[in-house]
């Protein structure tokens, strides 16, 4: 289904605004029943003021099953596709991943049921809008640790079993894609897995519910940001809303049933010394349908220190220069080393704002 950008230009003054509701006391699902939009939900930089690309260039689609192909050519071609997708888009679709469709549907339904629980039952589990947000997003969301420690809400009763099964299967797919990305960078297949200790890596379920919005042009589901970590795998009910920044414009990403939308995170940008970049994306809302998306971010182990891979840099201070001098000058480390846990803490204390967190550890900016 196509994403639902409303037509016509938005009014410059949000005429349907009211004083803000008490913060953190309610969900956007409840606010969506009001006949107007509280002003704290109206974005200063409204999503439809920026042009959306009419590019016909499709987002890359990669057949995951070819990674296991017994034809070495098919595997190496797939690795090349990963490299191209990471360089050109930072986002790609993954098909034939082996996670059963019924499991993908079950986790979406389990999250929908979770969001439908009475508000008292979600409190303490569901994170509403963080206090650092100045403007609130038109979404309810919950983030649940899946690995290295598994957590689950107790309700709905089926949630635990479905989440456990889903997150295990998705983690296998993610680690295999990360092996492919590692090879595509010219590193050992297991370089990222081992260096960032993915055996103990972080995995979350981040479920988002975007209720229909009376004035979708005034609100923002999720403002532009890049994801922390290594690789996020996202599914959604078949309602569009995700937009990805590509060649300076926003591109609507239409869901493909039964596939994952994958994107690389800030820690691939750091590890690859900027060869691959994490990409800004955002979610816009519509006035018709409830949209549910489930993002599963995968990160390093919390105590892993992430820095540019030594093979991808030539640091005059730490490596013996075996390469021509010109290359040495071209590849100094562009990012400082930082523990993943500290990066997350830094991000949590910052407003969700583009790639501001990554900028803070970039050298020379
Ligand atoms: C996220 C995210 C996009 C979406 O949760 O980090 O980018 O479509 N979600 O909900
Ligand atoms: Ni994201």
UniProtKB/TrEMBL annotation:
Task: Report any Pfam family annotated for this entry.
Answer: 2OG-FeII_Oxy
Pro residues: bias regions = 8-23
Entry keyword set: Iron, Metal-binding, Oxidoreductase
Domain of life, per UniProt, equals: Eukaryota
Q: Where do the segments described as Disordered lie?
A: 1-24
Select a single GO molecular function from the record's annotations and give it.
Answer: oxidoreductase activity
PROSITE patterns according to UniProt: FE2OG_OXY
Cite the Fe2OG dioxygenase domain residue spans from the record.
198-300
Per the record, the similarity remark reads:
Belongs to the iron/ascorbate-dependent oxidoreductase family.
Its recorded name reads: Fe2OG dioxygenase domain-containing protein
Species assigned in the record: Gossypium tomentosum
Task: Output the lineage of the source organism.
Answer: Eukaryota, Viridiplantae, Streptophyta, Embryophyta, Tracheophyta
């Amino acid at each position: 289904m196509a994403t639902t950008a409303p037509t016509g230009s938005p009014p410059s003054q949000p005429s349907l605004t009211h004083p803000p509701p008490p913060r953190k006391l309610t969900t956007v699902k409840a606010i969506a029943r009001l006949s107007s939009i509280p002003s704290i939900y109206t974005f200063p930089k409204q999503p439809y003021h920026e042009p959306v690309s009419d590019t016909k260039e499709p987002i890359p689609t990669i057949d995951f099953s070819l990674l296991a192909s017994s034809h070495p050519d098919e595997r190496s071609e797939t690795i090349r596709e990963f490299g191209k997708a990471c360089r050109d888009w930072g986002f790609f679709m993954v098909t034939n991943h082996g996670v059963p469709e019924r499991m993908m549907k079950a986790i979406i339904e389990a999250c929908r049921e979770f969001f439908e629980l009475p508000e008292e039952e979600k409190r303490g589990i569901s994170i509403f809008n963080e206090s650092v947000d100045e403007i609130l997003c038109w979404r309810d969301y919950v983030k649940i640790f899946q690995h290295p420690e598994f957590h689950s809400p107790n309700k709905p009763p089926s949630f635990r079993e479905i989440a456990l099964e889903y997150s295990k299967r998705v983690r296998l797919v993610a680690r295999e894609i990360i092996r492919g990305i590692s090879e595509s960078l010219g590193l050992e297949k297991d370089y990222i897995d081992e260096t960032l200790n993915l055996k103990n890596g972080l995995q979350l379920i981040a479920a988002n519910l975007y209720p229909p919005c009376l004035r979708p042009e005034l609100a923002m589901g999720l403002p532009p940001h890049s994801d922390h970590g290594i690789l996020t795998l996202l599914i959604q009910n078949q309602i569009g809303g995700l937009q990805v920044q590509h060649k300076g414009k926003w591109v609507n990403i239409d869901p493909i049933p039964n596939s994952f939308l994958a994107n690389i995170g800030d820690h691939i940008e750091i590890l690859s010394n900027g060869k691959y970049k994490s990409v800004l994306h955002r979610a816009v809302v519509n006035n018709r349908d409830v949209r549910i998306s489930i993002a599963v971010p995968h990160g390093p182990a919390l105590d892993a220190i992430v820095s540019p891979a030594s093979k991808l840099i030539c640091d005059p201070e730490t490596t013996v220069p075996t390469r021509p001098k010109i290359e040495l000058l071209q590849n100094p480390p562009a990012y400082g080393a930082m523990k993943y846990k500290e990066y997350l803490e830094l991000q949590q204390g910052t407003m969700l704002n583009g790639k501001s967190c990554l900028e803070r550890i970039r050298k020379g900016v």
